[in-house]
Specification:
The chain has 484 residues and is α/β, with parallel strands linked by helices. Helices cover 37% and strands 13% of the residues.
Length: 484
């Protein structure tokens, strides 16, 4: 059943063709057999998963099932999960057993979805390749010598390899969309405030947002429908009704205006990626859409703005990990200062330390105005560019990543090159807009991603636009060799 979509699995469960317990055992067996070569999982929760599956089967028999009841999924190890290690991919939290559930965790459990484990990720979500994890890098199932993207690489690779039908991720600067593109699956970053951040371990609080990974827009719509919603425990959560994302998937695209930012198609874009975008645009024209050239004049500042704002916020958020309250504590310390220094020095990896130092510098008294304040001012200009564009077009289209997945270790010693992997995704987070990546072709037998960017709370329209494209193409149905 690993080749079935969520929609197909729901039908099979309701008709009694398979039980959730059988489906869950199948996912667990595949994870245990295949994950050694991929390293998608930090923790596999076998017994809890089987218990949840049996409970789901009872709900189905009683006629009390919701859309996701009995469906297995993998959870990014950044969402707190009661009585399960929640490590955030870091040595600092290697021994942390969460005492409560994140809101997203709670919502999925109440819906009857079955978590089979927690997925590997860049440490504290800081990375674009899933190589900064304390638990080692995740490998791309299309070519295990390449990266899956980051920071949600474990979740993306698990769906691409058909270990689970869907998974959760988080996106701070592209960490759902970029791995979705590199692994050839569908990933959606919702509007900031659409999905609760309560219990989602913070990296950069004004940028982080949880969202779904799936094989198709149709499946992503179901998962997002459960994850989204107002949460009074999250002060950034927006009190707004959740759309029925599945209801409008088949709507016509006649008259749709697609914005093509000229800044996205210049130097640095792999020609094969550009060709895939052009081919996708031709499909959309057949569906009734019209392309419109637009400009996002401040988009070029997105990377420098992000790498001031995000490290500044991470510096503040990660100050709580001091060896006192929870997390790693150094042994045989001499005094309190020694405990602080050694606990943080041992607990954090190189990339996290780099960003903490950058952020602390940017927030320091002599440089706050020159760096952090200026970055926030340019961030406003980036947002205004998008608002102007959306007065002219319905959706913005472009590449998700500059090219295909790069080799493991290829950019590990070049932080700037690594940071530029997210050049097309970061602006969306700075503006707080929804964006998604869908498969749109291949180059050198590796997947290419098409990025769709919507206006605020336009997730239903994005899913509709993606779904209609997926009805006309089969890129999203391709399976990595050896995982079919």
């Amino acid at each position: 059943m690993h080749d079935k979509t969520v929609v197909e699995l729901i039908a099979a469960l309701r008709q009694g063709d398979i039980s959730s317990e059988e489906l869950t055992r199948g996912c667990l067996d595949r994870a245990m057999a295949l994950d050694e070569g991929l390293n998608c999982f930090i923790t596999v929760t076998e017994q809890q998963a089987l218990d949840a599956a049996r409970a789901a089967d009872a709900r189905i028999r009683a006629g009390e099932a919701g859309p996701l009841t009995g469906i297995p999924f993998a959870h990014k190890d950044i969402f707190c999960t009661r009585d399960v290690r929640t490590s955030c991919g870091s040595h600092m939290l290697d021994n942390f057993i969460a005492p409560y559930d994140a809101t997203v965790t709670q919502k999925l459990a109440e819906a009857g979805a079955v978590m089979i484990g927690k997925t590997n990720m860049d440490e504290f979500a800081m990375g674009s390749s899933n190589e900064t994890s304390y638990y080692g890098p995740v490998k791309n199932p299309w070519n295990t010598a390449t990266v899956p993207g980051g920071s949600s690489g474990g979740s993306a690779a698990a769906v691409a390899a058909r270990l689970v039908p869907v998974s959760t991720g988080t996106d701070t600067g592209g960490s759902i969309r970029q791995p979705a593109a590199l692994c050839g699956i569908t990933g959606l970053k919702p509007t900031y405030g659409r999905v609760s951040r309560y219990g989602m371990i913070a990296f950069a609080s004004s940028l982080d947002q949880g969202g779904p990974f799936a094989r198709s827009a149709e499946d992503a719509a179901l998962l997002l429908g459960t994850m989204a919603g107002f949460d009074p425990r999250d002060s950034t959560s927006v009190d707004r009704p959740v759309d029925d994302y599945s209801a409008t998937l088949g709507d016509s695209l006649e008259g749709l205006k697609i914005g093509l930012p000229k800044e996205f198609f210049g130097e640095g874009l792999d020609g094969r990626t550009g060709a895939a975008i052009e081919a996708a645009l031709e499909e959309y024209k057949k569906l009734g859409a019209t392309p419109v050239e637009i400009s996002l004049p401040h988009a070029g500042y997105s990377v420098p703005v992000y790498y001031v704002v995000a490290p500044a916020e991470c510096s503040s958020n990660l100050s709580r990990y001091d060896g006192v309250r929870f997390g790693h504590r150094a042994a045989d310390v001499k005094d309190l200062e020694d405990m602080y220094k050694r606990s943080r020095g041992e607990g954090f990896g190189a990339e996290v330390k780099r960003r903490i130092m950058i952020g602390t510098y940017a927030l320091s008294a002599g440089y706050y105005d020159a760096y952090y304040l200026k970055a926030q001012q340019v961030r406003r200009l980036i947002r205004e560019d998008f608002l102007k564009a959306f007065s002219e077009v319905d959706v913005i289209m472009g590449p998700t990543a500059p090219g295909v997945a790069f080799g493991l270790g290829e950019k590990a010693d070049d932080p700037v090159s690594m940071y530029l992997s997210d050049i097309y995704t970061i602006a969306v987070n700075l503006a707080g807009l929804p964006g998604m990546s869908i498969p749109a072709g291949f180059a050198d037998d590796m997947p290419l991603g098409l990025q769709l960017i919507g206006n605020y709370f336009g997730e239903a329209r994005l899913l509709n636009i993606a779904h209609r494209y997926q009805q006309a193409t089969d890129w999203h149905r391709q399976v990595p060799p050896g995982f079919g």
